[in-house]
């Protein structure tokens, strides 16, 4: 049986059907609405060494048909979400149907997993019937570009790798104590001053608005929505160092490039209200105008130096300003301390699989106000947590962190259930799942890749596949089949011992 990650809802080998033997030329047939997906699929197939055309050719050509059509009723699903698709591989060719281009794209990624990374020679593909749709609408990965900065092309490469696993949101953590990484026209010192430097004296940097537009457009072509985060009211030292008027005492803070948290905050003092509210309107307004997606993440975590009453007041002002841009607001679960959240606010839960402190109460408070939850339990979903026996970084610290109850294995990353974390939170209350990658120890994109892969495959399966059909032993066997594709793409990944990698290069490069 073929291996697909994340596990499809239905995967069957048709009785008596013989394999598909690829001819030297592959011909993609696509309706006008599927043309963009067809071009991306063709580019991937050509990169693997096969001739691909979208026109009639003389001689034999294996037919790959992409059809956009309404979903038929299924015994395995009660609805037809926009990412649903059906894929059939037979000896006659490939048929991929879906109600939307997004579904066609997800199905094309399944097809790429069914094919070997090298298509330059003779290739036979087992016949298979797949019916598939996601469990959760939101399946995300967060990349922290503050503590270490990553160039646009590096982010685009990560997007390609995530798309193969049907991840559909990229959350960019754009601001923090160590740096401000997005151009804001109305507050130019945020980048001219606040973008300098990073952790371990690494170079800083920032994205121009055109840079971010390029990332957003590239992701959108792969049906991935970019979620921008401006972390407020804490994690703001970079802004406080650039603009004295944002500080309670009117004195600019010194730049900070360490790794401690919880010491900075916007001021809730009445004499700073005009400057603070103008800052919120300008910054959140410009970021919202840049991003066509529905989300605006406002942070809200670890505001330990903000008095509780001030925190509630600032969260009320921040979330109201964000909602006024027309976006749906996301914040880390601490925002549940506020009783005045905009309708539809989403709490991103980042405590443990077994909640600590008031984290569960905060989540329930957001849901009680009509919101939803993104589940990111730190001891299972945080992709920056170290593996057992991690390598060292150039800065001398181990690659990855261990504060969330130690190192996180692939088994731990796979072994949690989103509905079992917070009592009183149902599946309908959960928007989806996300794996954050904080960048204290990741100096290069290769470091990021090592921490993300293969654990992101576990997150992808939790977010996509039916909960009752997941099986850990079967999962690691399917992950092993991803190794050659990651090798061919030049992705550095951890060859965790529980996976039978079968000659994959992984971290041994």
What would you say this structure looks like, in words?
With 509 residues, this protein is an alpha/beta fold. Helix content is 29%, strand content 18%. It has helices at residues 35-47, 101-114, 152-163, 189-192, 209-221, 237-242, 273-290, 308-324, 359-368, 378-381, 410-414, 445-452, 455-464, 472-480, 483-488, and strands spanning 10-12, 20-21, 25-30, 51-53, 62-68, 85-90, 93-98, 124-125, 128-132, 138-144, 169-173, 175-176, 179-180, 225-232, 295-299, 328-332, 346-349, 372-375, 430-437. The strands form 4 sheets. The chain has an 8-stranded parallel beta barrel, surrounded by 6 helices. A 7-stranded mixed sheet has the order 1-9-6-7-5-3-4, with helices on one face. It is elongated. The mean pLDDT is 95.
Question: Helix/strand-derived class?
Answer: alpha/beta
Largest sheet: spatial strand order: 10-11-14-15-16-17-18-19
Multimeric status of the protein: single chain
Largest pleated sheet: 8 strands, parallel, barrel
Contiguous helical run count: 15
- In terms of per-residue confidence, which ranges show pLDDT below 50 for 5 or more consecutive residues? none
Please report the total strand number as a whole number: 19
Mean pLDDT, to the nearest integer, reads 95
Helix content: 25-40%
- Form type: elongated
**Termini gap:** 30 Å
Query: Roughly how many Å is the radius of gyration?
Result: 23 Å
How large is the share of residues in beta strands?
15-25%
